[in-house]
Amino acid sequence: MVMRILYTSVLSVIAMFIFTKIAGNRQVSQMNLYDYISGITVGSIAADLAIDLEGEYWPALVAIAVYAAFAFFINFSSCKSALLRNFFNGKPMILFEHGKLYEKNLLHARIDTAEFLTQCRTAGYFDLSQVDTAILETNGHISILPKAEHRPATPADLSIYPDAEHPCTTLVMDGRILRQNFKFCTLNETTLLQKLKQQGFALEDVFLATCNAKQEIFVCPRTGARMVHEMFE
Question: Coiled-coil stretches, from where to where (predicted)?
Answer without folding.
Answer: none
